[in-house]
Every structure is written in structure tokens, then in C-alpha cells.
Amino acid sequence: MSVKIIVGAQWGDEGKGKIVDLLSENVSIVARYQGGANAGHTVVVGGKTYVLHLIPSGILHPGVVCVIGNGVVLDPQAFLDEVAFLESLNIKVRGRLFISHNAHLIMPYHKLIDSLKEQGASRIGTTGRGIGPAYIDKFARVGVKIVDLLHRDVLVKKIRSNIEDKNQLLSKIYHSSEINVEEIVEKYLQYDKLLDEFITDTSLYLNQALKEGKSVLAEGAQGAMLDVDFGTYPYVTSSNPTSGGACTGLGIPPTAVDSITGVSKAYTTRVGNGPFPTEELNDIGETLRKVGGEYGATTGRPRRCGWLDLFSLKYSVMVNGIEELALTKLDVLDSFEKIKVCTGYKYKDKPLKSFPLDLCTIEDIEPVYETLPGWKTEIAGARSYSQLPHNCRSYIEFIEKYLETPVKVVSVGATREETISR
Length: 422
Ligand code: GDP
Ligand code: IMO
Ligand code: MG
Hints:
By secondary structure, the chain is an alpha/beta fold. The chain is built from twelve helices and 20 strands.
């Protein structure tokens, strides 16, 4: 049994796409376990940039099988568009891409409700992809599942009953016009044929593959600090990006997991609202955004930027069980004279012992920083650890020591080649 989990260790966009693509070279299967088309995973190969929202980042390796697990909420149109996009670039996906029959579908009313909710005062700053409302329906036991596409009567009944409910909600709470049932029924009846060849029992498939000795890379979306249980609630996504989510989101046992890698940027970013203790709302944040190209891969929104928050990262290492780190975007720090890292939080002048999970505390904490010297040298050309400048290595080693976790991969640019393995 060999499952390696790749998790985002911060607030998403850590560079999971690049790292999963890299590690896919030596695995049989890459499987996404949660989230939906809210994710935007970028892979840069051969001068081309691919942004994947639903399809695992292993798809660019022709010999790898890709799985979209039961924990994902799947927007069928977004999925088909992504298949078409890859096929337009001559990437063969049919026959090696599977969707769990047990995953839930994103429906047009999920996206509508997501956008209407975001018009209120307590905006989360969601991606607008219908994620929260789809997971609400899943847990309210009224969701429409992929397997329902195969049973037309069930599908139509479920859609009609859902829309009846949603129309009440829409007119009473949002004063919005009603959703047209027939249009949606007709559209979703067609997805049966279009998706049929991709649908299978992926939990069974994965467990059989593991039994045969095949290796699986479990690809998380979002990041630990956006986890619905462990993140900065309510400013989170509606699933479990943390490593535990990989087992429930794929239908594999915890005993099959043999390693967990966390991906972290060398600084911190966040898209959407919510607490961000090390945010730099000044020239420093601007420089990070500009040099790091920090704009959302899904929505294009500018990402909020700030120094590396080791205090939250240590918490993330704990809740995920991260055994090794991939540190990305180190090159973005090349120009800084001095680099700050947050090594603790103070609340009412007292240092906190653990990461606070109530919004009142976290919104009121003061980050404690240490300042390290920058390296003021371009590092994108470095291909071995020893080629990195002394101060850059000291920065990495400071992180390792604080987190008590080794940095096994150092990323110095967006391409596959711009990587140092240790
Ligand atoms: P993901 O959601 O975790 O897969 O990350 P995103 O793809 O949303 O955002 C990461 C961005 O950083 C993408 O544009 C990547 O191409 C880029 N990237 C990844 N690693 C590096 C790196 O080491 N250096 C630089 N400059 N860019 C990187
Ligand atoms: P990847 O996989 C960064 C954020 C949104 C918002 C919150 C809830 O590319 O790292 P949602 O649409 O999920 O209900 O929005 O979560 N968010 C992400 N931030 N990277 C992502 O994915 C994200 N997916 C959702 O901005 O703050
Ligand atoms: Mg992203």
C-alpha cells in the first residue's frame, strides 16, 4: 500500500499543482479528494501554462491515471470544459480519467445561491463556484450524486424536489426570481451520456490498485487554513483539505497512507476575506504580489500578501501530520534586503501557546517577528542546494528548525526544471 498525500499548508495557492506534477512522474495514480472547481492548480511544462480546476495535476504525465474522488463536488460543465481544453492541446485523457460515482454534483442553483449569499454583509469572498451550497446539500442529505445521472427517474425526481425547495428560499430570502426546472432537468439528463465513460467506483478502483502494489498521490485542493474544521472559520471553504480528508474523500483507509507532504510558499498569501495576521498592506505586499504574480488562478482576484507565518504553519504541520515540506516561490524573495518571519502570536500582550481558532482572538492578535538577512541574488538558476546563496539556505534552515520538519523540495520558479530536491 502506498499513498502519498500532498496538502496545502497555508491558505491555498501554495504551488500544489507544480509539486503534484513533479511527483507524478513516479506514481501510477493521482487522485483529487475534496473541493471542486474553486481550485486553480497551475502546472508549467514545455513553455505552456495549464490551470487545472478539477482534473488532477498528474494528467500531464501520459502514463498516469487520474481520479476525481467522492469527496469532490463536481461541476459537470466545468469538468467537460477542462477535458475539451486538454484535448485541444492533444493531451489524451479518455481511458485514464475517472470520476467517483459517489461524488456530488454542483447544480446551477448552488452557484446562484453562492453568489446571492455573497451579496450580503458577511461576505466570505468565495470563488462563486457553488461549493458551499453543494456541500450543504450533501450534508443535508438532499444532494444530487453522480450515480443519480445513471438513473433518469431518480435524477429528475431529485432535481424537481430540490428546485421546489430552492425556489422557496430564493423568493423568501433573496427575493430572487424562480429557477426554471425544465431547463435544468434537460441539461442534466444530457450529462449522463457525456460523463458515462468517466464514471466508476473509484474507491474500489483505488483499493484494488493499492492491493496490486500501485502508488497513489492524493492531491489536496485549497489549504489547511481554509479547512472547515481547522481553518479560520467561517472564512474557510466547505470541505476538509487537511490530510484526514484524503481518506474520506477517496474511500481509502488511513492504514494505506505512508507519507504526507505539505506545500508552503516562502511567504504567505490569501484570497478572499478573513484573518491574515502577517498581511502587509504596503509596498512589501505589493512587491510580493507583483514579483510572485499573485493573482487568483480561478478568479483572477489579486491575492493578499505578507511574510511567512511560521506560527500558523506549525499548527498546520500538526493537524496534517506533515512529515516533509515542499517550499515554493523562494525566488520571489530575491530582492528583499531583509526578510521577516512570524514566529509567534501575542494576544493582549501575552504570547499564545497554540493557534487560536476563535475569530475574536485571531482578529486581535499581534504577530511576533524575527528578521533575517535577504540574499539579494537571483536564485532561479540554482539546481542544487549548495548553489543557493548562504542567506537563502539559512532562511530554509530557520524554517526547518522552527517547524521541526525537513524541507525536501525547494522551488525557485514555476517550471518543472526550477526545482531542487534534497
Ligand atoms: P496551487 O493552487 O497550490 O496549485 O497554486 P496556484 O497554481 O494557484 O498558484 C501558484 C502559482 O505560483 C502558479 O502561478 C505557479 O505557476 C507559480 N509557482 C509555483 N512554484 C513557483 C516558484 O517556485 N516560483 C515562482 N516564481 N512561481 C511559482
Ligand atoms: P487552490 O486549490 C485559495 C477560498 C476563497 C474563499 C474561501 C471560500 O487553488 O489552492 P469557496 O469558493 O471555496 O467557497 O471559497 O476559500 N478559496 C481558495 N483560496 N486557493 C484555493 O484553491 C481556494 N479555493 C477556495 O477565496 O476565501
Ligand atoms: Mg490555486
